[in-house]
Amino acid sequence: MNNDEPETGTSRRGFLRQTALAGAGLVAGTSAARAEGADPLITEVQPWATEFGDPVDAVPYGMPIRFEQHVVRRNVEWLTESPVSSINFTPIHALEGTITPQGCAFERHHSGAIELSKADYRLMINGLVERPLVFTFEDLLRFPRTSVTAFCECAANGGMEWGGAQLEGCQFTQGMIHNMEYVGVPLRVLLEEAGVKPEGKWLYAEGADASSNGRSMPMEKALDDVMLAFYANGEALRKEHGYPARLVVPGWEGNMWVKWVRRLGVYDRAVESREETSKYTDLMPDGRARKWTWVMDAKSVITSPSPQAPIRHGKGPLVITGLAWSGNGKITKVDVSMDGGRNWVEARITGEAKAKALTRFHLDIDWDGSELMLQSRATDETGYVQPTKDALRAIRGRNNVYHNNGIQTWWVRADGEVENVEIA
Amino acid sequence: MSKSLKLLLGSALTVSALAAPAMAERLGLGRAALPEEISAWDVAVLPDGQGLRPGSGDVATGEEVFAANCAMCHGEFAEGLDAWPVLAGGDGTLRDMRPVKTIGSYWPHLSTVYDYIHRSMPFGAAQTLSVDETYAITAFLLYSNGLVEEDFVLSDKNFTEIQLPNADGFYPDDRAESEYPLFSAAACMTDCLPEQKITKRAVELNVTPTDPDGKPAGTLPDLHAAAAVAPASGDTKAAEVTPEPAKAEEAKAEPAAPATEAVVAIDPELIEDGEKVFKKCTACHKVGDGAKNGTGPALNNVFGHAAGKADGFKYSKPLLTMAEGGLVWDMDSLDAFLADPKGFMKGTKMSFAGLKKEEDRAAVIAYLSTFSN
Questions:
Q1: Is the dihedral of CA A56, A61, A64, A69 positive or negative?
Q2: In chain A, domain spans
Q3: How many CB atoms lie within 10 A of CB B144?
Q4: Which is the most buried residue in A260, A364, B98, B242, by most CB within 10 A?
Q5: Cα-based torsion angle of the residue sequence A25, A29, A30, A34 in order, rounded to the nearest 10 degrees
């Protein structure tokens, strides 16, 4: 029925033909596969196949190959007045798996990323403790270490989308997130070293930068799973992620993951700093505001296809993939809808679903080339099912900027281009 | 010590299934924090007044200190310039479509105002305000919000008597009760909704950063782009042979060219470094084609020119005085100014701590010089 369909093919192609034959149409971009003549990339000796590549002493610490130079953090200039108190976004549309490379993991600074050496680093624990202490970095490396993989999501991730579809691409709509494997010392160990007094119910952590970005958390959380991390993804933290030491606060909003931590103060109450009153509080329709909304609820997004990752290969086999996460535990299920939430199919969770960490999902479909309204929907181990944006707005109104964990809709057009839309 | 450490680690190993090692006793690491160290770093002030230092400040002094240190962003009346935070007003707007969240309308505690100003402001020169100055600014902000009279004096003594209007406007996270039950029903899988229609398209707002081709910034490259633009009958094979590399080379070759006209001798790398350093300045200063005055003056034609010449910018008195005295922004004067703005120009409105590194100053001056003729 269609002369573009390759005559020869692997068994995989054979399988595809069975499922995708009906009007395979123009398979854009498969020029090599349907070329009539032999492919010179194969028949002719290419430069890289005859000349030397780079020697081992060319690049002591490597950056991605230049063909990947689009896979970078981006910011949206109009969002903030100054790039030193601003945010950029992880290119999640271009990444796979679950671990975010540090070099393209989003940054949020309140006063710029500072340069603080290990030699100049000090950590103070004081307040309601038996022994106010000061540690050098060397001291901290002598405590027993643990590791944890955790997502760090800005509470404002998706905030610009609260009023309606606004930005084109999941880098901008869901990209205030990263997921790393951390190694460090449990806060509990350090706090026990100082000896928390019984009346010490809150921990206040602040950074060494000019903003200090102090945040309070209940002592139970601090003693549960919070870590003072020195390493991420196998190497030292990057400057922009708090080198040489930051807090890892699994499942809780990114603002609490204080970077360049210099002081842990133990108090009988929350400090109620600027970052936990004026900001990071959630204005409700009655004019009152929720405070202490620390947990990041279950959420997911399809990273490809998406506005920055359109479908260029035409109809036929299509890999749909995305990320799901929950601050309340493990992701147990991710569903994908192609008709805007009317009907759903369960996607495959690829790899291990870890609690409070990014989870990758895939769904392999045979796209018939028609428009799709793509959505994903996460369910976590508490049974919480990711709601629609409208369901959240019905409770929280229109001025609730933080904690938008609503379902994202991508409109896949017949030409494979993808748009950020809202539907009803 | 080493023996007990071994024992501890040994016991930690035996319970390695736990997320964290079990710590039976202290390791004895670190040293006692000295009182003067705690005093230097523990500057937190809590709603109940914990942490307040002895001192005081009145509204009039606060207005002066605010005008000198804060008004360039927040406005002389704390009304907020450009998109910098509005600090006053907004009463009764919290239910509006566009609520104005200020100290008077939203913030629950006065301690937060003091704490934040004292430790994090002015933006770019944090921790430069004294305790009394902080009391004074806080008093001025209470006055700007109509909460105290103009003769008010704020001190550690009367601090906790002040209640902000929205003190009772906050309640702890209640999602576990108000939301989770609603979102915990088994997920519907089929015929869940009527047919859906698009109600909003992000493209219509047109606010997404774009690549030169007009697509959303960062759109994955089309590996067959060359083939796609070739005529329908074109030789797709030829196009395929030269995919990314050629394009990347061109792109790489271009950016080095601009900006070097003005100061031919300057190292392009230094200019590039300067552009990066200049990001610290962009909160207040714009430079280049179409640059307008913002919180600070536009910086075109600054290098090599007389000071105080940006059209329409309201310079501070000290700058105008120095300009009248013949100040020209050359390598030396810019270097001295940028190294220590307030030292070089006492009373300057520029709220910036300065660039401590000589190479940063050299780079940013080189960068600025490319916008001068």
A1: negative
A2: 11-49, 81-290, 299-421
A3: 25
A4: A260
A5: 70
Q: In what order do the strands lie in the sheet with B170-172?
A: A282-283, A289-291, B170-172
Across the interface, of B41, B83, B202, the residue whose CB is closest to A262 is B41
B268-369 has the same fold as B56-161 = yes
**Residue A256, φ and ψ in degrees, nearest 5:** -85, -10
CB contact under 8 A, B173 and A294: yes
According to the model, what pLDDT value does residue B230 have?
A: 39
**Can you tell me which residue has the tokens 């200090």?**
A212
pLDDT band at A34 (very low <50, low <70, confident <90, very high): low
Lowest mean pLDDT among A277-286, A345-354, B362-371: B362-371
Cα(B74)–Cα(A307) distance, integer angstroms: 37
Best mutation site among B18, B120, B355 for testing chain A: the one with the most A CBs within 10 Å? B120
Task: Please state which CATH class domain A81-290 belongs to.
Answer: alpha beta
Q: Is the pLDDT of residue A39 over 50?
A: yes
Measured CA to CA, the distance from residue A186 to residue A270 in angstroms comes to: 21
Q: Is B216 exposed, middle or buried (0-12, 13-18, 19+ CB in 10 A)?
A: buried
Per domain, the residue ranges of chain B are 1-26, 56-161, 268-369
In eight-state DSSP terms, residue B371 is T
B256 at the A interface (CB within 8 A)?
A: no
What gap in Å lies between CA B83 and CA A85, rounded to an integer? Answer: 12
- Residue A154 to residues A175, A177, B356: CA-CA distances in angstroms? 9, 6, 31
| pLDDT tier for residue B276 given thresholds of 50, 70 and 90 | confident
Residue A137 touches partner B, C-beta closer than 8 Å: no
Question: A133 — contact with chain B (CB < 8 Å)?
Answer: yes
pLDDT in tens, B2-50: 444 444 444 444 444 444 444 557 999 999 999 999 999 999 999 999 9
- In terms of CATH, what superfamily is B56-161? Cytochrome c-like domain (1.10.760.10)
Residues in chain B with CB shorter than 8 Å from the CB of A139 are 29-30
Q: How far away is chain B from the Cα of A274, in angstroms, using its nearest Cα?
A: 6
The CATH number of A299-421 is 2.60.40.650
ipTM: 0.89
Contact (Cβ atoms closer than 8 angstroms) between residue A246 and residue A258: yes
B268-369 to CATH, choices 3.30.70.360, 2.60.40.1930, 1.10.760.10, 1.10.1740.10: 1.10.760.10
pLDDT tens, residue by residue, A312-341: 999 999 999 999 999 999 999 999 999 999
Asked whether the beta carbons of residue B282 and residue A164 sit closer than 8 angstroms, the reply is: no
DSSP secondary structure code for residue B161 in this structure? G
